[in-house]
Amino acid sequence: MKARDDLSPGGHAAGGAVAAPERVRSEGARVVRAGFIPLVDASVLIAAAEFGFAAREGIALDLVRDVSWANVRDRLAFRQFDVAHMLSPMPVAAALGLGSNPSPTITPFSLGRGGNAITLSTRLYARMQAEADLAGGETALANAEALAKVIVRMKRDGEALPTFGMTYPFSSHNYELRYWLAAGGIDPDTDVRLIVVPPPLTSDALAAGAIDGFCVGAPWNMVASERGVGRIVAAKQDLWPSAPEKVMATRPEWADSHPETLSRLIVALDAAARWCDQPENRDALADALADARYVAAPVDIIRRVLRGEFTVDPQGSQRVIDNYFIFHNNLANYPRPSKALWIYSQMIRWGQIGHSAEGERLASSAYRPDLYRAALGPLPDPADDRRIEGAVAGDTFIDGHVFDPSGIPAYVAGFPIRVADAAPLSRDDI
Fold first, then answer.
1. So where does this one cross the membrane (predicted)?
2. Among 7, 19, 181, 266, which is most exposed with the fewest C-beta within 10 angstroms?
C-alpha cells in the first residue's frame, strides 16, 4: 500500500466513541491506517508497506503523511488513524494527562534508536569558535561549554539570547536539547528560548535567522549543513546512545479490540526492522524514503545519513557515527518501561509535572512489553523491564549520570540545573 498526503486535521471528538470494526479489503487483508511524519526514523513503517512485510501478514498498511506531531496525536485520538509513528514521550505524556488532547495512548513497539542531532547556525558556531578557541573537532560536551561562554558574553552585552527549535514539548528532541544545554552549564529555561519548529522547516528557519539552532531527526540536520547554514555540534549517540526515540503508538481500545491485527502488525514491523538493519538493503531503503510521498529529501543525503556519514559544516568537515540508526539490533524495538520512566524523570526535571507514585505507575503503563511478547515470544525477561540505564560501557550519558528507575526523586535532585519544586501542568496548548 502506497502512502498518500492527507494533511487536514479534521475528525470527530473521541469522547464516548466506539471503536470501528476492522476494515477488510475484498481480498481479505486487514486495513491498518498509520500516520507518520517525514523523517528517516519512520523507516520501519515505510519498509513494512513498501517491501511487502505487512502484506505477508495479511495487512494492507495505509500510510498517511502528516505535518505535525500535534496532528498525529489528535488524528490517532479521533480515530482517523489506527496506529501512528509517534515521539517516544507522547504516550507517556498522554498517560499522565499532559497535552491539549491527552487521550489514552500506548506503545507496544519501538521503531528503533538514533537519528537525532543538534545543529547550530554558522553565525553562532563562529562566535563559539572565537570565544572558546574551538578547532572544529571538539566533543558535544565541549561544544555545549563553548556555547555557555558565548551566552555569558551575550548577557553581559545586553544581546538577545539564542532561540532554539525543537519539534514538540513532549519529545526526545526537547529533552535531549535541554540535557545537552544543561550539561554545558546552560539553563534551558533562562539562558535560551525554546520554540516548536516542524522538522522539514528547520533549515529554512535557520537560514532566515528565525532560530539559532535546533534539535531534530534525520535528515534535516545534514540538509542544513549541506545548504551551508548549519553546523552539527552533537548527535544522539553523544548524549545517550540508547535514548528512546520514535515508537509505533495506538489507542488501548484499538489494541484490545483488534488483538490479532495488532499482533500481525508487530510481526510485520519486526521483520521490516530486521531488513532495515541489513547494510545491503540501505540503498533500496534510501530510494523509498526519498520519494515525495515519504521523506522527500535528496536520496544522497538519506543514503549517507543511514550510514552515519555526516557533513557537519559548510566547509565539508566529515564525521562518521557508527550505528547512527539501529532499527532492530540490541532489542531496539522493545518498549522497555525503564525508558518510559526516564522520560517521566525529564518531565519532572523540566517542570512539566511533579513526582508521585501514581505518576510512576501511569508513565510505566504507556509502554506495553506484554503486547510485544504476545506477538514475538517470551523474551526479554520481564525482570529486566526496569533496569538501570546509562551504566553500561558504550551506553552512558554525556554528563556521567546513571538513571535508576527506583529512585527518580533523587535522580532529578542530583542535577545542578533543573526546575525545582515543579507544579504539575495539565495542558501544553500545542
1. none
2. 7
Cα 142 from chain centroid? 24
Contacts of 84 (CB under 8 A, 6+ apart): 34, 35, 36, 72, 73, 75, 76, 248, 249, 250
Asked whether residue 266 carries a pLDDT value surpassing 90, the answer given is: yes
Largest CA distance in the chain: 69
What is the spatial distance between Cα 361 and Cα 371, in angstroms, rounded to a whole number? Answer: 18
Give the count of beta carbons closer than 10 Å to the beta carbon of residue 83.
28
Residue (of 343, 341, 373) closest to 109 by Cα position: 373
User: Is residue 340 within 8 Å of residue 107, measured between CB atoms?
Assistant: no
* 65, 115, 204, 388 from 292: Cα distances, Å: 10, 20, 18, 41
Q: Which three cell numbers stand for residue 252?
A: 488501548
Q: Please report, rounded to a whole number, the percentage of residues in the chain having pLDDT higher than 90.
A: 86
Residue found under cell 515470544: 377
Amino acid letter, residue 306 = L
Secondary structure in 3-state letters for the chain: CCCEECCCCCCCCCCCCCCCCCEECCCCCEEEEEEECCCHHHHHHHHHHHCCHHHHCCEEEEEEECCCHHHHHHHHHCCCCCEEEEECHHHHHHHCCCCCCCCCCEEEEECCEECEEEEEEHHHHHHHHHHHCCCCCCCHHHHHHHHHHHHHHHHHCCCCCCEEEECCCCCHHHHHHHHHHHHCCCCCCCCCEEEECCHHHHHHHHHHCCCCEEEEECCHHHHHHHCCCEEEEEEHHHHCCCCCCEEEEECHHHHHHCHHHHHHHHHHHHHHHHHHHCHHHHHHHHHHHHCCCCCCCCHHHHHHHHHCEEECCCCCCEEECCCCEECCCCCCCCCCHHHHHHHHHHHHHCCCCCCCHHHHHHHHHCECHHHHHHHHCCCCCHHHCCCCECCCCCCCCCCCCCECHHHHHHHHHCCCCCCCCCCCCCCCCC
Q: Tell me the pTM.
A: 0.91
> What was the pLDDT predicted at 102?
84
| Structural domains of the chain sorted by starting position, each given as residue range(s) with its CATH number in brackets | 4-112+244-295+328-413 (3.40.190.10), 116-242+307-321 (3.40.190.10)
In this structure, the strands spanning 116-121 and 230-235 are antiparallel
246-250 and 83-87 as β-strands: parallel, antiparallel, unpaired?
Answer: antiparallel
pLDDT at 100: 83
- CA-angle at 59, arms to 286 and 252, nearest 5°: 100
Residue type, 248: M
Which residues pair with residue 246 across a beta bridge?
A: 87
Contact 238, 321 (CB under 8 A): no
